[in-house]
Predict the 3D structure of the following.
Amino acid sequence: MSKKLTISSIKKSKGQKPLVMITAYDALFAKLLSVSADMILVGDSLNMSFAGKSDTISATLEQMIYHTNAVCSGAPESFIICDMPFGTYINKEEALKNSIAVFQKTQADCVKVEGGEDKAHIVKYLTDNAIAVCGHIGLLPQSVRSEGGYKVKGKTEEEKESLIKDAKAIENAGAFCMVIEGVKAEVAKEVASSVSIPVIGIGAGKDVDGQVLVFSDMLGLFEEFTPKFVKKYMDGATLVRSALSHYAEEVVNGDFPKEEHTY
Ligand code: KIV
């Protein structure tokens, strides 16, 4: 396993080496995924792939703390990001109180908040109070209901300018890196080159400073829907089903357990 990254090594990686970020929600997967990932994001996407909900909106701070703790236990040498769930950073005081709870109850290295210029004052307040922040701009899953769906950003000149403003505002507020989601590739490229901190893409093309994927998407375990930007590196759901049907068959026909599995 490579050495744990720090805020400063992450910032310095810009222009040197693409960063590999992956989500994880439990100790088991965190340990497996930590071998090749630079950073592990305990994303509120866990509300969909782990808790079975249709969006991230109902994820709670308690849930995020529980899962972040599990991930930190499984991957103590990894740089861990805890996603702040919907409604926990509506103003700077709430944001600080809830981020302090994350820092005090877990070993997370930073928090992630969604939003651009409009959330810059919150990012600043957190970073001024020793809470490292990863931003998240572009398509914001926590705004899915107010926006009426998941909408790709950067389709117009106006949207491009606004994304660049968002990225600069988040950088100036003290964030050490940011995620950019669901943005036209050529625009994400311009956004990444407009700031000096790493911009990690998801559905934002390859000309950014790293990539993040939801682990259950890339392992082919989550079957509800597959966004265009997901590459399935394994057909996990088929493998799991086939292993389980093999097990069930052996239980039924008496082939399991055998002598070697018996005390
Ligand atoms: O919650 C999450 O997993 C995320 C990623 C999609 C970046 O925010």
Q: What stands out?
A: The chain has two domains: 7-232, 235-263. The chain has a mean pLDDT of 97.
